[in-house]
Amino acid sequence: MEERLERQARNEALLRQVNEQIATLREGAAGWADAAQSFDFQCECGKLDSCDAHVALTIEEYERVHGQRDRFVVLPGHETGAIEAVVEMNERYAIVDKRDDYEPFVE
């Protein structure tokens, strides 16, 4: 297993934690009055040295993605086929699922 890909998988888990904090702060400060309103979350591609992109998600979308521990949300084109498979994609985001060999790094 490539060390670079292992590090990227761990970074994705870190970015998910950042997004969890963002969601918690936004919920506490403003509430989720409008279900259709989208919020900017950090792209969870794990490429910390080259990606500072944001992904616009509604809270429902955010919770659906993160309802499974090995799924992450990235900008389309930011997925890494060696460590994840795209399970859903639209013009705003791609949902990726970690491959079995990399799941232990995102728990």
- Percent range for helical residues? 25-40%
Q: What is the CA-CA span between the terminal residues?
A: 18 Å
Sheet with most strands: 3 strands, antiparallel
What share of residues are in beta strands? Answer: 15-25%
Low-confidence stretches: none
Q: What's the domain count?
A: 1
SS content category: alpha+beta
H and E string: HEEHEEE
Overall strand count: 5
Name the overall outline.
Answer: globular
What's the overall average pLDDT, rounded?
84
Count of individual helical segments: 2
Tell me what the structure shows.
It is a single chain. This protein has 107 residues and is α+β, with helices and mostly antiparallel strands. The protein has one domain (3-106). Helix content is 33%, strand content 23%. The protein has two helices and five strands. The protein has helices at 3-30, 59-65, and strands spanning 38-42, 54-58, 71-74, 84-89, 94-98. The strands form two sheets. A three-stranded antiparallel sheet has the order 3-5-4, with helices on one face. A two-stranded antiparallel ribbon has the order 1-2. The longest helix is centred in the first third of the chain and has 28 residues, at 3-30. It starts with a helix and ends in a 9-residue tail after the last strand. 28% of the residues are buried. The mean pLDDT is 84.
